[in-house]
């Protein structure tokens, strides 16, 4: 089971790291996958997604990773030590990504088995702008809703690593209260996006649709700005039986 999941994760990661897609360059981005209730795979620091192999992932324990969320103020060195201690194999030399806590948190959400965090240029062109939150405040077309849920979870800029994981935890709590379900997309100001999927294919599809939506959004500003779908129309698409069927066929 663990080897099969790792193989799927490698394939997904290389796809997300394909230079032609412009999702990441160099060592940007990280990915993860749930193995079982106790452990998950996460990308090691300093490894490129486009060429990643099995040695580029570290198996870590949920309980030790998530314990860092409640550990109070920690120095960078203390976080590093905590992530090192979370490795299943104490003899492993690869260092878990600085975003490991964020991945552990995301993989605890209902139905999330795979996570892909990328920095697409076109998405960051929006997230690094003065009007980022305003620009992503609505949905533009039906398939954006089908693939990416009624709304993204938006996280103001936070220092990557443990502070970001804590910020995302609070945003997810509010999102679940407002929508009654988890998001499929987390957008992080001045940083990038996270796709939350039941399968590797869903993570890939969500990321691709986010990139398309970002291109469409940027194009709307040449003609006066976005005309968002109404909340009623968004809800209609999200709850249509035929669209629910499509979501099931897509993996979730």
The CATH topology label is: L-fuculose-1-phosphate Aldolase
Return the string of H and E elements: HEEEHHHEHHHEHEEHHH
- What is the typical, i.e. mean, pLDDT? 95
Task: Tell me how many strands there are.
Answer: 7
- For the record, give the distance between the C-alpha atoms at the N and C termini, rounded to a whole number: 20 Å
Roughly how many Å is the radius of gyration?
18 Å
DSSP strand (E) fraction? 5-15%
Determine the structural class based on helices, strands and strand pairing: alpha+beta
- Main beta-sheet annotation: 7 strands, mixed
Name of the CATH first level: Alpha Beta
Any low-confidence stretches, pLDDT <50, length ≥5?
Answer: none
CATH H-level superfamily: Class II aldolase/adducin N-terminal domain
Q: List the total number of helices.
A: 11
Task: Give a quick summary of the entry.
This protein has 252 residues and is of the alpha+beta class. The chain contains eleven helices and seven strands.
Describe what this molecule looks like in 3D.
There is one protein chain. The chain is α+β, with helices and mostly antiparallel strands. It has one domain (2-249): L-fuculose-1-phosphate Aldolase (3-Layer(aba) Sandwich), CATH 3.40.225.10. Helices cover 45% and strands 13% of the residues. The protein contains 11 helices and 7 strands. The chain has helices spanning 2-16, 62-67, 76-85, 100-106, 121-127, 132-135, 142-148, 162-179, 200-220, 231-239, 241-249; strands at 30-34, 39-43, 57-61, 114-118, 153-155, 185-188, 192-197. It has a 7-stranded mixed sheet with strand order 3-2-1-4-7-6-5, sandwiched between helices. Helix 8 links the parallel strand 5 (153-155) and strand 6. Helix 4 (100-106) runs parallel beside helix 8 and helix 7 (142-148) packs antiparallel against helix 9 (200-220).
């Amino acid at each position: 089971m663990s080897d099969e999941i790792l193989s799927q994760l490698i394939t997904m990661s290389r796809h997300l790291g394909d230079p032609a897609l412009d999702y990441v360059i160099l060592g940007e981005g990280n990915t993860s996958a749930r193995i079982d209730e106790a452990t998950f795979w996460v990308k090691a620091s300093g490894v490129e997604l486009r060429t990643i192999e099995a040695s580029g992932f570290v198996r870590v324990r949920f309980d030790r990773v998530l314990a860092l969320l409640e550990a109070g103020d920690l120095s960078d060195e203390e976080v590093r030590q905590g992530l090192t201690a979370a490795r299943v194999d104490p003899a492993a030399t690869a260092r878990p990504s600085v975003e490991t806590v964020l991945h552990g948190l995301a993989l605890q959400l209902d139905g999330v088995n795979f996570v892909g965090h990328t920095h697409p240029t076109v998405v960051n062109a929006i997230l690094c702008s003065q009007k980022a939150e305003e620009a992503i405040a609505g949905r533009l077309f039906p398939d954006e809703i089908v693939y990416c849920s009624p709304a993204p979870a938006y996280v103001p800029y936070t220092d990557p690593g443990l502070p970001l994981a804590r910020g995302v935890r609070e945003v997810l709590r509010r999102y679940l209260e407002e929508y009654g379900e988890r998001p499929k997309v987390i957008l992080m100001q001045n940083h990038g996006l996270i796709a939350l999927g039941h399968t590797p294919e869903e993570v890939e599809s969500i990321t691709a649709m986010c990139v398309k939506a970002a291109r469409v959004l940027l194009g709307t500003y040449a003609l006066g700005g976005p005309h968002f779908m109404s909340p009623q129309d968004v809800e209609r698409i999200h709850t249509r039986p035929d669209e629910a069927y499509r979501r099931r066929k897509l993996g979730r």
